[in-house]
TrEMBL record:
Lineage: Archaea, Thermoproteota, Thermoprotei, Sulfolobales, Sulfolobaceae
Metallo-beta-lactamase domain ranges (all copies): 15-214
Native source organism of the sequence: Sulfurisphaera tokodaii (strain DSM 16993 / JCM 10545 / NBRC 100140 / 7)
Protein's UniProt name: Metallo-beta-lactamase domain-containing protein
SUPFAM superfamilies, sorted: Metallo-hydrolase/oxidoreductase
Length: 306
């Protein structure tokens, strides 16, 4: 039995899908929802009816997925080892220093950067006292009479995982039906867009229905993957045109000139944060493809076409 638990969240997405799998006498919960009173009430009402799970799998560290994990201290909780590594990084002093310097060097305004780092301490509260079992690609977890397989799909986050149960794939935020998942540069030396595109190729080889964390199940998986790939191809071409037109440009100038769904000045603070991460992820991809080159002048970074 598979149950979709629709947990409320603010904004256009409206809710996140958690999934409860019951197999024989055991059950597994995939993701937990935001750490809000409304989401907690909704989730606990579901669990009063269907019972608390023996196992919990977190697809990735974002608050709408890991937010209520502390409710399940009596369950076996699984998360990819790379997510634990990254959570430790963002709670460290090195994270803020490294990323702030990189964002400032790319020309992003200090007030926007400061807002980006304002709430990182909430992750400490979310995971405080939780004992995670680390998983890696290919691990299996026995639930009832079935084996759940872990598929590592980095890109949206560095430790994002999908979960294969029989012919069904629970894909978190890796593939979404109505929007393209955010792919942001989370550490200076990473190349998340390359990782993400490679992860799409990995999932494209798997037949079956996909259950995403936002929206309805996806049947036409290959078609949706091609649409997402085309989106990123167009974004990369747009950035190359911006650099070609301006000659020498920093990250902030590129971000402001990309055709987001709204003009830059009309984006919310949260959407600007996502846009910054996306811009830098695409720049890093182009740098490693040698399509553009980086020039450091003093403590500032500029990009030109190769």
């Amino acid at each position: 039995m598979i149950l979709t638990l629709k947990l409320p969240m603010q904004g256009p997405l409206n809710h996140v899908n958690a999934y409860l799998i019951r197999d024989g006498n055991e059950s597994l919960l995939i993701d937990t929802g935001l750490p809000t009173q409304e989401a907690m009430l909704t989730l606990t009402n579901y669990l009063k009816e269907y019972g608390y799970p023996n196992y919990v799998i977190i697809t990735h560290y974002h608050p709408d997925h890991i937010g209520l994990v502390r409710l399940f201290k009596d369950s076996n909780i699984f998360i990819h080892e790379k997510e634990i590594e990254y959570l430790n990084f963002i709670l460290s002093n090195e994270y803020e220093k490294e990323m702030k310097n990189y964002l400032l060097s790319n020309g992003f305004p200090e007030d926007i950067i400061d807002r980006m780092f304002r709430n990182r301490d909430r992750f400490y509260e979310i995971i405080k006292g939780v004992n995670f079992n680390k998983v890696i690609d290919g691990d299996t977890i026995k639930v009832g009479g079935s084996e759940i397989k872990i598929l590592w799909t980095p890109g949206h986050t560095m430790g994002h995982i999908c979960i294969k149960y029989n012919e069904i794939l629970f894909c978190g935020d890796h593939i979404l039906p109505n929007i393209t998942p955010n792919v942001s540069l989370l550490r200076v030396n990473d190349n998340p867009l390359k990782s993400y595109l490679d992860s799409l190729d990995k999932i494209e080889k798997i037949n079956g229905k996909i259950y995403p964390a936002h929206g309805e199940p996806i049947n036409n998986v290959k078609e949706r993957i091609e649409e997402i790939k085309e989106h990123h191809k167009n974004r990369l071409e747009e950035i190359l045109k911006i650099i070609e037109m301006k000659g020498k440009v920093n990250g902030f100038e590129i971000a402001m000139n990309i055709s987001w769904y709204k003009k830059w000045d009309e984006l919310s603070n949260f959407d600007k944060q996502l846009a910054i991460g996306e811009t830098l992820a695409h720049i890093k991809y182009l740098l490693e493809k040698n399509a553009i080159k980086q020039t450091n002048i003093g403590n500032k970074i500029y990009y030109t076409k190769n």
